[in-house]
Amino acid sequence: MRATGVVVAILLLCGQWLAAAVAVAQDASPEIVPLTVEAGANTYHFAVEVADDGAERSLGLMYRDRLADDAGMLFLYPDERLRTFWMKNTPLPLDIIFIAADGRVVHVAADARPFDETMIPSIEPAQAALEIRGGLAAMLGIGPGARITWPQRETPPEP
Questions:
Q1: Which of 5, 46, 68, 75 lies in the 20 to 30 Å Cα band around 152?
Q2: Which intervals of the chain form a coiled coil (predicted)?
Q3: Cα gap 72→60, rounded to integer Å
Q4: Which residues contact 140 (CB under 8 A, 6 or more apart)?
């Protein structure tokens, strides 16, 4: 019985720590940059959060319960290679748009399922990925070959 009490206390402390960490992450002012998508004859404008270091990329859009149609998160990496994502702790369905170093969309993982821990591969090498509201890429006609641009800057190396 005593061991059960210790386990419960540890779980409560871990839960409080996680809640505090999420609150801090959500209260932090993320860097927001303009992003443009050219899909066929159409151009779309987004204001996206930037995730360009290991901690930001690991947290991603976890724990978010809302995402505006003109918002998203841009994951930047220092090199181009095969990438994988998952939806752990992510309650929103998302479209994950994988982007080559030249800004060309190479793959869209549409409507990734909330909370799913199955790995979602880029299919081709990517240097960036854009997460937007699930279903939006299909609705706007964003697919392989579309072009995505944002203000370029140096991305820190992977840890």
A1: 68
A2: none
A3: 10
A4: 37, 39, 42, 44
Q: Could you tell me which of 33, 18, 124, 118 has the C-alpha nearest to residue 71?
A: 33
In whole angstroms, give the CA distance from residue 56 to residue 49.
Answer: 10
Q: What is the pLDDT of residues 13-34, one digit of tens each?
A: 444 444 444 444 445 678 999 9
- Look-up: residue for tokens 């996680």? 18
pTM of the predicted structure, to 2 decimals: 0.80
Phi, psi of 104 (to 5 degrees): -85, 135
d(CA 40, CA 60): 28
Contact 1, 8 (CB under 8 A): no
Which uninterrupted H or E stretch holds 49?
Answer: strand 42-51
